[in-house]
């Protein structure tokens, strides 16, 4: 089975998933797609010997180019790990329930366009939440609205800064995303 990872940032989740899959039989990370030539994920991919495909916005949304590419690569599962663009509609339609994303908060709260990265943790701290966490969900055509697959929570105290919350949430991401991705992949029959 073949997985493609989409990442725009440092790629710590992509790296954890790739490392996890070195021990999973009959499954591999075939490709990493990014939209940021300066993304840390590119260096991590190089060390992991995973090819990287860089897209600019025009190419990424150019008709069904990315969809055809991934269909030709016989991809079974698309995993978003900090990818900041919306999936093209034809890609979502070509891969029904085969695109997953991780959001660094407990959807449906603190989700939607613009609610990513540090902004989420600032909003959680500002709202005085007593917990935060991660949401792994299927991807559809609207940000953060697909069916929820898995959530894990962490406690938030009123003295926690957004950085404190980010650290706790990232620990949950690294602890759970690789295994949840492996479970989803195992549940996909060709
Ligand atoms: C994580 O916070 C993830 O929840 C969000 O984007 C960030 C990716 O971080 N989707 P990294 O690039 O995997 O370190």
Automatic annotation (TrEMBL):
Annotated site, Raises pKa of active site His, chain positions: 144
Q: Extract the PROSITE patterns matched here.
A: GART
- Report the InterPro entries cross-referenced here: Formyl_transf_N, Formyl_transf_N_sf, GART, GART_AS
Residues noted as binding N(1)-(5-phospho-beta-D-ribosyl)glycinamide in the record, renumbered to the chain? 11-13
Select a single GO molecular function from the record's annotations and give it: phosphoribosylglycinamide formyltransferase activity
Q: What is its EC number?
A: 2.1.2.2
The record's Pfam families line, in alphabetical order, gives: Formyl_trans_N (PF00551)
Q: Give the reaction(s) catalysed.
A: N(1)-(5-phospho-beta-D-ribosyl)glycinamide + (6R)-10-formyltetrahydrofolate = N(2)-formyl-N(1)-(5-phospho-beta-D-ribosyl)glycinamide + (6S)-5,6,7,8-tetrahydrofolate + H(+)
Q: Where is the active site?
A: 103 (proton donor)
Q: In which pathway does it act?
A: Purine metabolism; IMP biosynthesis via de novo pathway; N(2)-formyl-N(1)-(5-phospho-D-ribosyl)glycinamide from N(1)-(5-phospho-D-ribosyl)glycinamide (10-formyl THF route): step 1/1
Provide the top EC class.
transferase
Keywords linked to the UniProt accession = Purine biosynthesis, Transferase
Where is the Formyl transferase N-terminal domain positioned along the sequence?
A: 2-181
| Residues that hold (6R)-10-formyltetrahydrofolate according to the record | 57, 101
Please report which protein family the annotation says this sequence is part of: Belongs to the GART family.
* Record's function text: Catalyzes the transfer of a formyl group from 10-formyltetrahydrofolate to 5-phospho-ribosyl-glycinamide (GAR), producing 5-phospho-ribosyl-N-formylglycinamide (FGAR) and tetrahydrofolate.
Protein name listed in UniProt: Phosphoribosylglycinamide formyltransferase
Organism for this UniProt entry: Spirosoma flavum
**Organism taxonomic ancestry:** Bacteria, Pseudomonadati, Bacteroidota, Cytophagia, Cytophagales
């Amino acid at each position: 089975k073949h997985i493609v990872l989409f990442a725009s940032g440092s790629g710590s989740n992509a790296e954890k998933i790739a490392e996890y899959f070195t021990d999973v039989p009959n499954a591999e990370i075939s490709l990493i797609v990014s939209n940021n030539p300066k993304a840390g994920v590119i260096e991590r991919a190089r060390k992991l010997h995973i090819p990287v495909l860089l897209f600019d916005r025009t190419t990424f949304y150019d008709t069904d180019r990315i969809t055809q590419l991934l269909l030709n690569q016989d991809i079974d599962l698309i995993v978003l790990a900090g990818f900041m663009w919306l999936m093209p509609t034809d890609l979502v339609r070509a891969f029904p329930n085969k695109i997953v994303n991780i959001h660094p908060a407990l959807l449906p709260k603190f989700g939607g366009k613009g609610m990513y990265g540090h902004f989420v943790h600032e909003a959680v701290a500002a709202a005085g939440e007593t917990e935060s966490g991660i949401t792994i969900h299927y991807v559809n055509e609207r940000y953060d609205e697909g069916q929820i697959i898995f959530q894990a929570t962490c406690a938030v105290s009123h003295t926690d800064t957004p950085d404190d919350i980010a650290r706790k949430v990232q620990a949950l991401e690294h602890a759970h995303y690789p295994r949840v991705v492996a479970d989803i992949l195992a549940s996909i029959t060709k």
